[in-house]
Write a structure and sequence with these properties.
With 248 residues, the chain is mostly beta strands. The chain has 2 domains: 88 residues, Beta Barrel (Lipocalin), CATH 2.40.128; 144 residues, Methylamine Dehydrogenase, Chain H (7 Propeller), CATH 2.130.10.10. The protein is 5% helix and 44% strand. A hairpin with a 2-residue loop joins strand 2 and strand 3.
Length: 248
């Protein structure tokens, strides 16, 4: 990726493409977001994220909600979002989202205001940023740090997590998804919360798994990368796939 001179002089924390304008890349460096046009190889803007004490950010990304005008970052145990049109104050924040360092954050692509966080406390938490005091759902399915959390691009009840316990999990969170309830064999509506469960465990990695990503082309495929450089491709179990398709 082309990078302008101002970016080269700073420590890059995270870079990601704009959700709509694919020629734009946002790069988080120190307490700034540098917005670049990679086709023209030019720096479009440098935006300072104002925050008392100047926290050290660990990762950041565009928010695909709100017309993609927000940039979301995590620092220490907190998660925050800034409207880049008026970055002098946070658009929203989740203070003390985890008891230990927050490693990653992702945003529901289909349901506004819903975000997911994970961290060194081994928990995956799901929040409504309008009421950030208590998470909507808290999962403790991993036995060590969770490095990465990702919503499925199409079916947002599917969430993938990667952990230092060497495992990749796919969790189905029907209770907070944008898709309708499922029914049991008698046609009765099943309790949403009872449907929240781990539907796949992949333990082929031998080292800590630092990254997991869903395929942009196939909603049932995901890739994971571990410390030893091993890249694995896995798929949603067929039985779970057919259950989800039956809801569409």
């Amino acid at each position: 990726m082309g990078c302008t001179q101002p970016c080269d002089k700073m420590t890059k924390i995270a870079s990601c493409f704009h959700p709509v304008e694919k020629n734009k890349v946002g790069t988080l460096v120190d307490n700034k977001v540098l917005i670049q046009d990679i086709q023209a190889n030019t720096l479009l803007s440098s935006i300072v994220l104002e925050r008392k004490g100047q926290p050290k950010f660990t990762t950041g990304k565009w928010n695909p909600q709100n017309n993609s005008s927000q940039f979301v970052c995590v620092d220490d145990t907190n998660a925050r979002a800034w409207d880049l049109r008026a970055p002098s104050k946070c658009a929203w924040s989740i203070e003390g989202a985890h008891t230990q360092l927050v490693r990653d954050i992702d945003l529901n692509p289909n349901k506004q205001y819903i975000v997911a966080t994970c961290g060194d406390d081994g928990k995956a938490k799901f929040w409504d940023v309008r009421s950030p005091g208590v998470p909507l759902v808290c999962r403790s399915d991993h036995s060590h740090w969770i490095w990465n959390i990702r919503y499925n691009h199409y079916h947002d009840q599917l969430v993938a997590t990667a952990s230092s316990d060497t495992r990749v999990l796919i969790t189905c969170l029907q209770s907070i998804s944008s898709e309708p309830n499922s029914k049991d064999i008698d046609g009765e509506i099943v309790s949403e919360r009872s449907q929240d469960r781990v539907i796949a465990r992949f333990d082929q990695h031998e080292e800590s798994v630092y990254c997991v990503e869903w395929s942009a082309a196939d909603p049932w495929t995901l890739a994971s990368l571990s410390y030893d450089g091993r890249l694995l491709i896995n798929r949603v179990p067929k039985a779970e796939k057919y259950k989800i398709l039956a809801l569409d």
